[in-house]
Structures are given as C-alpha cells and as structure tokens.
C-alpha cells in the first residue's frame, strides 16, 4: 500500500518518488531529510496513480523502468488524471541517453536526470513554484473582459502578488509611466484606441529599466505568425487562452524570480548583501534631496578596514569573506532605519547618516560603530582582531555633488589612517576650498604660459662709485588680460614646489639668454641674473637643460649669465646644491649669486664651502639701515664677510641718496633698487642706460 502523508501545513511542497529499489529509496529519503519538503514514496506505477487521485502532488520523480509500467506511461496517465501539462514530471535513469530524452519529451516529461545526480535534482526542484507558494512583485494587468480580469486578479492576489488591473491599454499606459512594475501582463486584442500590440511596442521603446520590464502576452490564437509577431515586438513570454491557473503562476513566478535575481546582482553585493555602488548612488541622491527639503544634516562616511589584507593573506580568502560578512552585520546593528550603507569593494564601505540634529550625534554613532568593529571575531575556530578607519564629511556644509562628497570622505579616511588608525577624521572644508582655489590658480598660470602672457622686466645693477651699469636682474611679469601687469608677488608663491615652477624657470632662462643675445648684437654688454627655484636647482635635469640653453644661444658669453639662488634654498640641501653650482661655474663658466643673504642664517663654514662669486644683501636690511642700528650692523657685517671671502657684494633695496652714501662709506659700491631704477621692459633698457650715464 502507498505510504500516506502525515497532516502537514498545506504550504509545504509535496514530492512523490516512484521507485522499486529500496536502496535508492533510502538515498532519496536521506537527500531530502534536511529539507522542508513532504516526501512520499511508491514502489510501482499503480500505487502512484492511486495516490495522485487522492492527493495533490507538486513534483513527481519516477524511475524510467517500473515493475508494472514504464515511466513514460506513468507520465501520460498522470497528465490524464490531473488535466495539467505543467506539473513537473522527471524521469530517473541510470544511463545518459539523448535518444531517451527525444522519446520522453513528447509524452509530457519535463526533464530526465541520472539517478546518481540527486543533488542536481534537488536544486532543480527548488526552482519550481508549487501550489500555495507565495510570490512577491507588482504586476500591471490589462484585460478588457471583466470576468477574465476578475478571475486572473483573484488568482494572482491569492499568491501574494499586487495587481493593478485595467480594461484599456490607454489607461494602463499612464500608470506604467508613473509607477514601477515588476511585470506586465496584457491581452493582445483589446477594446479602445490602443491595442495590446501597440502597448507592448511602447513599453519596449522606453529607456532604462522600464523598457526591460518583462511582458507576458495573453492571446486566443496560437499560430506561427502570431508567435513571430509577438516575439519580434519583444514579449518575454505568452499564454494561450483559456488561462490555466498553474500555468499562469509558473510562468509569472519564474519571470519574477529572474527579475529578483537580476536586481540582486545589479543592486546588491553578493557577499555581504549590502547595497552596491549602483543602489547606493540612487539612495545618495534621495538623501541629498531629503536633506535639502527638510534642512537637516547629512553625514557621508567612508570606512576602510585596518589590517584586513594581513588576515586575508594569512588565513585565506574564505576567512576574509567571512570576516567581511561579520563586519557588515556589525555595521547594520549600529545604523538607524533612515541610514544607508554600501560595500564599495574590497574592505571599503560607504555610509550615509541622515536627518542628523548635530555633528556630535554623527560622531557618537561613528564611535560606536568603530568600537563594535574592533571587538574580537570568532571564525572557524580562530579569534581575529581588526579595526577600521573612517572619514566623515557633512552636507550641506560641504556643498558638493555625491561623487565629490565621497571623495572628500575618502580623503578624511586617509588622514585617519595617517593619524594612527582605528579612529575617524572629519573633512576640512576650508582646506578643500583653499585647495580648489590653488588648483584654479595653477590652471590659470599654465594657460597664461600657453598664451604667452608672461614677459621679463629688467632692473639695473650699477656701480655707485663709477656710475657704471654692469648688469640687470631679470624679473618675470604676468601681462594679465584683465588684471593688467602683475608682479611676481602676485603669483610665484602659488608655484612653489610644483612642476609648473620648473617650467617657468626654464622659460625665464631661455628668454633672458635670447635678450642677452639681442643686446650683444646692439653693442650693449651686460650681465643678466635670473632667479632659479631651489626645487629646480636640485632637479635631475637642471644642469643638462641649462647646458642646452647656452648652446642654443652660443653668441652669449656664459660669463654674462648669472644664476641667483636663495640662501634659504641652499641650506635645505647644501651638499646637492653645492655640487650643482660647482658644475655650473667650472663646466659652463657662469657665475652664481647667493640672493637675499642674511635671511637664511648661513654659517661661516657653509659660506666658505659654497662655490659662489656674489652675495646679495637682502633689501629688508638695506632699506632700514639708516634708521635701525641693528640692520646697519648686519649690512656692515655682511660687507666685511664678503671682503674676507673675496666675494663680490651687491646691496638690494637702495631707495635714497642716504642709502647710497651709507653703503659707499661701508665699502659697498654695487647696488640695485628703486632709488636707482625700477624694473623696466627690455626695450626701455638701452635708453635708460644712456640717460643714466649722462
């Protein structure tokens, strides 16, 4: 006699095995023992048919060869009894035969499995919907027959599906555009202005996810032409009237499961089940909109685990994955319902704390989260410890777009790591704004170079005792299109330490040599000094670039060219700078001046070992030497020092006749300054020299 089912919940899936081998029955029962399926076993086909007449079976598995009939015959009989061609019926065989499959399918067999593949069969069964199973999803249904519409709605709603049903495609179309549906079910022949075919066509013309919505067509005509027409329009599946309840549910449920799986892949991280970047981006935009609407504070956080790579490398990827899952769970526990978290990849997470009353509220949440993450983990018999670093920025204080806000939080997180890890750092919006201004300024200077907006002015150097003009200092100017002629103080400080500073130095060297060549041709013999940045002096290519420039302007005597180096820049790396200027003097023949002397606190030993020819006394001492005895003493000391080391000395900042007389009394004849001449364009130099000498 067949084994009777015990009284179990009706929602439990009922599986029937028809098999005469006791050993295989035991294997089958063992495989299904840990499932919630209700299993019945019959020894032959006759018992199975008797049971099927009495009870509903969700799934039938039958051996191909039974004592009283073949499995194919049993399948045909089951179809006759149930009047249902959609009930899954699987044949079990001991051989793999394509011929057997071709013979079985026309008889109504759903599929064929080898008996040894019980686990594959179990996975296959799990994918099939069954009587009483609840689904989830929202369906848009169009049917002009009221009785048919009410019947199908009742069937779908009984399966826990939400249905919006309409008699016309015109009315349904407006709802489709305004709402989000998981599936569209539509009759093809409809009353009204819009046919079902036109409705499907309009859906497929939509952009994004709306255009990809699964569409199941219902048609009363099943012929080759109609099928081609429907599939060419882009339907996902179709059903022939009259609608059979189980067929309708099987087809719709499978599509909804696929949609759900696609959305999981598209929007969620497979490992932690947290939202991925795509879904987080959508929620980020909503959070900003809500923040603007309600005038609240939104915290954007970026979190990175400290020491995760070491654990992953030591214990393996499986342990690392398990740790990420645990971390994700701890983060969720701390978060509030209105907050959002996303795994951005690897061991990095992004978080949104919405509707904050204050910054302190966010800091309290982040502190709890970091403390929770730092608690020990017990995985696979191992005790693991890990921590996290977190960066935080606040919107709308940091009034930027989502991508920039995340980048700012990431930058703050990096600062937290530099600050010792296992802590959080707040993003400094004022520093970022200053950086943005700086970057815009650099871009403007680069553009000015490309547009040839820079030029050189020249300030004369004279011997005050003989009134001889012996040289010029080349000083850069920016001929700004809107702000006029700008002095170096307006822009050079912005270039300090950048590659653009080196490029501008190179430009100055080239243009100064070119001007020297033109003056030589005009019979004007001068020495020109150019200021070179410390970074450029110490760069690997400086000496080679300078050599190339001198070769290009070979009509200039290298002794006419002087490099001026800031004293403070020399002291930063004395050995390197000394070697470079030694090569410039000995191999190229150019002279070197130590600029702004007195501000860098050079020691006598430094001065003794520097291969320089000239000291330029900083103008701050010269300008105040008349009124300030201390500055007068400094100037006098520098002049004496230069005389002791047999160096030429030039005083900067000479502004009055009193400066001139005081310097001459101290033994310094060479000078430059506004009292002699202001910097001037190159075309004014020749005329100025003639007038000065007269």
From TrEMBL:
CDD domains the UniProt entry points to: EAL, GGDEF, REC
Record bears the keyword Coiled coil: no
Modified residues (4-aspartylphosphate): 187
SUPFAM superfamilies: CheY-like (SSF52172), EAL domain-like (SSF141868), Nucleotide cyclase (SSF55073)
Domain of life: Bacteria
UniProt keyword Cell cycle, yes or no: no
Domain EAL: 438-693
UniProt keyword annotations, A-Z: Phosphoprotein
A family per Pfam: EAL
Record-annotated GGDEF domain positions: 296-429
InterPro entries hit by this protein: Biofilm_reg_signaling, CheY-like_superfamily, EAL_dom, EAL_sf, GGDEF_dom, Nucleotide_cyclase, Rev_trsase/Diguanyl_cyclase, Sig_transdc_resp-reg_receiver
Domain Response regulatory residues, every copy: 14-130, 138-256
NCBIfam families: GGDEF
Full protein name: EAL domain-containing protein
Species this protein is from: Methylomonas subterranea
């Amino acid at each position: 006699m067949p084994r009777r089912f015990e009284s179990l919940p009706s929602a439990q899936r009922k599986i029937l095995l028809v098999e005469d081998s006791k050993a295989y029955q035991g294997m089958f029962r063992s495989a299904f023992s840990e499932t919630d399926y209700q299993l019945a076993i019959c020894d032959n086909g006759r018992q199975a048919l008797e049971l099927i007449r009495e009870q509903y079976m969700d799934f039938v598995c039958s051996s191909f060869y039974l004592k009283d009939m073949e499995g194919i015959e049993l399948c045909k009989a089951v179809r006759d009894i149930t009047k249902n061609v959609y009930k899954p019926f699987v044949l079990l065989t001991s051989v793999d035969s394509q011929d057997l499959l071709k013979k079985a399918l026309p008889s109504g067999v759903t599929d064929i499995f080898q008996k040894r593949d019980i686990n594959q069969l179990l996975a296959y069964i799990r994918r099939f919907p069954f009587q009483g199973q609840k689904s989830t999803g929202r369906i848009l249904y169009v049917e002009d027959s009221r009785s048919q519409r009410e019947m199908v709605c009742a069937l779908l709603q009984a399966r826990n599906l939400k249905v919006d049903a309409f008699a016309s495609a015109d009315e349904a179309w407006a709802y489709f555009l305004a709402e989000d549906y998981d599936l569209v079910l539509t009759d093809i022949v409809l009353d009204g202005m819009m046919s079902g075919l036109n409705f499907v066509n309009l859906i497929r013309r939509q952009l994004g996810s709306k255009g990809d919505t699964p569409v199941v067509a219902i048609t009363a005509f099943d012929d080759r032409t109609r099928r081609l027409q429907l599939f060419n329009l882009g339907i996902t599946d179709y059903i022939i009237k009259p609608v059979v309840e189980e067929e309708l549910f099987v087809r719709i449920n499978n599509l909804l499961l696929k949609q759900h799986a696609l959305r999981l892949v598209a929007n969620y991280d497979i490992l932690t089940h947290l939202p991925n970047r795509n879904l987080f981006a959508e929620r980020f935009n909503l959070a900003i909109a809500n923040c603007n609407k309600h005038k609240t504070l939104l915290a954007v956080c970026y979190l990175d685990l400290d020491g995760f790579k070491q654990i992953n490398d030591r214990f393996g990827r499986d342990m690392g994955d398990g740790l990420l899952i645990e971390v994700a769970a701890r983060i969720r526990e701390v978060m509030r319902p209105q907050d959002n978290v996303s795994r951005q990849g690897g061991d990095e997470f992004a978080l949104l704390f919405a509707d904050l009353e204050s910054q302190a509220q966010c800091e309290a949440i982040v502190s709890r989260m970091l403390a929770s993450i730092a608690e020990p983990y017990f995985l696979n018999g191992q005790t693991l410890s890990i921590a996290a670093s977190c960066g935080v920025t606040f919107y709308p204080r940091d009034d930027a777009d989502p991508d920039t806000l995340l980048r700012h939080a990431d930058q703050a997180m990096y600062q937290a790591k530099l600050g010792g890890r296992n802590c959080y750092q707040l993003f400094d919006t004022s520093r970022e704004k200053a950086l943005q201004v700086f970057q815009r300024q650099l871009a403007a200077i680069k553009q000015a170079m490309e547009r040839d907006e820079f030029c050189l002015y020249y300030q004369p150097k004279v011997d005050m005792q003989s009134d001889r003009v012996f040289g010029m200092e080349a000083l850069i100017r920016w001929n700004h299109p809107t702000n006029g002629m700008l002095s170096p103080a307006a822009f050079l400080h912005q270039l300090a330490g950048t590659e653009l500073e080196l490029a501008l130095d190179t430009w100055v060297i080239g243009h100064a040599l070119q001007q020297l060549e033109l003056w030589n041709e005009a019979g004007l013999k001068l020495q020109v000094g150019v200021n070179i940045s410390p970074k450029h002096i110490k760069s690997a290519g400086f000496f080679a670039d300078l050599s190339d420039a001198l070769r290009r302007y070979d009509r200039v005597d290298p002794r006419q060219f002087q490099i001026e180096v800031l004293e403070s820049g020399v002291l930063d790396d004395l050995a390197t700078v000394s070697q470079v200027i030694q090569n410039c003097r000995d191999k190229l023949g150019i002279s070197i001046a130590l600029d702004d002397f007195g501000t860098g606190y050079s020691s006598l030993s430094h001065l003794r070992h520097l291969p320089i020819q000239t000291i330029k006394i900083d103008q701050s001492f010269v300008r105040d030497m008349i009124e300030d005895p201390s500055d007068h003493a400094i100037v006098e000391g520098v002049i004496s020092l230069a005389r002791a080391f047999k160096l030429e000395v030039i005083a900067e900042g000479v502004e009055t006749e009193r400066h001139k007389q005081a310097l001459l009394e101290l033994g310094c004849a060479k000078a430059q300054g506004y009292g002699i001449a202001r910097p001037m364009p190159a075309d004014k130099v020749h005329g100025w020299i003639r007038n000065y000498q007269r």
